Amino acid sequence: MGHNSHAGSEEDVGDLFSDCFWEIKGFKQVVKRIDDGAALTDNLAQLIQERADLELKYAKGLKTWSRKWEDAIAKGHEYGSLEQAMKCLTVEANETADIHLDVRQKLTGSSLESIKHWKNSNYQKTFVKWKQTAAAQEGFEKVQRPWAKRFLKVEKAKKAYHLAAKTLEQVKGQLEILEKDISTTSDALKKVKDKLSKAETENDKTKDKYRDRLNELDMANQQYINEMTVEFEKCQAMEKIRIEFFVETLRDYLGYIDVSKDARLTNSFQNIQYGLNEMSIEEDLKKYADQKGTGMAMNWPQFMEYDDVSNSMPIGNLQMRDNNSNQGYDDNRSNKAGSAAGNPFNGFDDMDSEWGDQNAYVTHPPQAVEVRVRAMFDYEGAEADEISFKEGDILIQLDEEDENGWCRGLLNGVEGLYPGSYVEVMK
To answer: Which residues contact 144 (CB under 8 A, 6 or more apart)?
Structure first.
């Protein structure tokens, strides 16, 4: 084991240290690892907390998306088995949101509580530092203190010996010069020889003392190694406990965030796939033709004799439009709602209105109780009789929602129409 080249007094132990564990204060990195372990525990908790926050944010987004499109599909113009398949998408989103809410609960509950409990059990704070850190530092210092004193004596003896050896070489050089100089007196030569004798004596003395100090240190080294190893293994055992706990926590974390094996998610995807596989496009088109198109029964006009009674009654379902009877509703309102949903059959609503769709002219009486609704999404009115609003705005709903999904309401003194799927009734 090498010795530090610095010198110092026996009391100046703290000034002599290096990165080598065995040298004075070389254990500082081992002690610091205990502090690092406490900080790393806090980092792990923060990591899991931030992931839990992301799970909550994602789940909320899915819930909002699911509610919006569930309502839009129900009130829109999609039909048949394709409508059912699209509804499965909103069900899947809602189920996935519930799964991620469960993930958040496990992370904030099981994981974070486990970390908090573990840290409290393994790290106790003293006035200035962790109790475990102070204990480790005290243990190393207690073992190293007697060895450090011997080490400093070696350094002091080495310094004295090297100084004596240097002095001896200098005196020898002086003597050699004087002996070559014929003008040197005998007295001067005698003085240098006496000085050389003293230097040789001092050199031998300091050399022997240096060797003795080294022997003393060598005899103490093995005990020093054994005792320092004991203290080091205590720190290793503490670190092993920390690593094992972290590994266990990360395994639990992985199990919580792995939603691929959740039966709810698997069933949701299977339901979507089943709905798509069971679709019958030809059957849907035929049903539409029977209900809205060429398959509908028609009472074709036939020749009729003049009859006073029959000529005094309206022909078929045709009625004169009363502009005051619809409370401001547009007979093309369904087209606006349909365009937002991308329905390719919007034009058929115009035909219904042209041929006397009586429902387009039904008067919606004012509601007896004021209904307040909150906007769930931003809406920009496309027509002059529509009102615009931002998410979170509070409106007063004046009429019940019509069959096409439109309502009449009041916002900041302005009255107009808006899509009912964009608001929710306040409780």
So the answer is: 24, 27, 224, 228
